[in-house]
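Good morning,

Attaching, inline, the backbone tokens for the sequence recovery test we're adding to the shared suite. The designed sequence is right after.
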């Protein structure tokens, strides 16, 4: 069948005669969060070689392309930057670990003498995914961390605290919406308030949490004030 003639007939004939074909080669695989499917999927990482075709027959190399990520389910291709986004399972684990670390940091700053603070912290950690967390476990962890002066807090908000919080929160913060980052800080604030007003050490720890979550200082102040107001 001849191509349709007309205003764009010449372009139509060129497409039928000449084209570019890409031959893809798998170079890796794994699991990722597919933005097309909206969920965790398997993927292949592909590199391609492009060739000019004449009447469908490859004739001349046109260089390489890619790499790209191909979803095993929807077969769509994406840039490799999609692999920077954690899978749903990985994100849940990151959030759970972040809540646990923040709770320990606030307890370490405020002390574990008040049962109400321990109860609030344990309930928060259980809600994040550590279903078996108890008040006694948290108290024991805080005591162990306090004794490990080479790793944790020699001062209320020393370098050890900052490092621990940033290790837990830095990878998570870019993937949390502003409301999610604020919610995590508010959880920490409620643990600190469970046994009374903020102490200077608790405020220091909460400011560190806010900074690690990339919340500006003014918003940290606003959120800490809001946490004091009964809902």
């Amino acid at each position: 069948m001849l191509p349709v003639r007309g205003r764009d007939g010449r372009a139509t004939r060129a497409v039928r005669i000449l084209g570019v074909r890409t031959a893809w080669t798998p170079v890796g695989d794994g699991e990722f969060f597919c933005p097309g499917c909206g969920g965790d999927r398997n993927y292949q990482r592909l590199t391609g070689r492009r060739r000019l075709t004449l009447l469908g027959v490859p004739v001349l190399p046109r260089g390489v392309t890619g790499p790209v990520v191909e979803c095993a389910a929807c077969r769509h291709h994406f840039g490799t930057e999609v692999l920077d986004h954690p899978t749903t399972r990985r994100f849940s684990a990151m959030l759970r670990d972040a809540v646990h670390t923040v709770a320990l940091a606030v307890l370490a700053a405020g002390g574990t003498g008040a049962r109400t603070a321990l109860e609030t912290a344990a309930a928060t950690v259980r809600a994040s995914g550590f279903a078996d967390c108890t008040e006694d476990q948290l108290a024991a962890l805080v005591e162990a961390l306090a004794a490990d002066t080479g790793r944790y807090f020699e001062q209320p908000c020393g370098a050890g605290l900052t490092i621990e919080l940033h290790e837990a929160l830095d990878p998570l913060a870019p993937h949390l919406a502003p409301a999610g980052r604020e919610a995590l800080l508010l959880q920490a604030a409620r643990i600190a308030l469970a046994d009374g007003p903020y102490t200077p050490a608790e405020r220091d720890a909460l400011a560190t949490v806010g900074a690690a979550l990339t919340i500006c200082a003014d918003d940290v102040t606003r959120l800490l004030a809001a946490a004091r107001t009964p809902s």
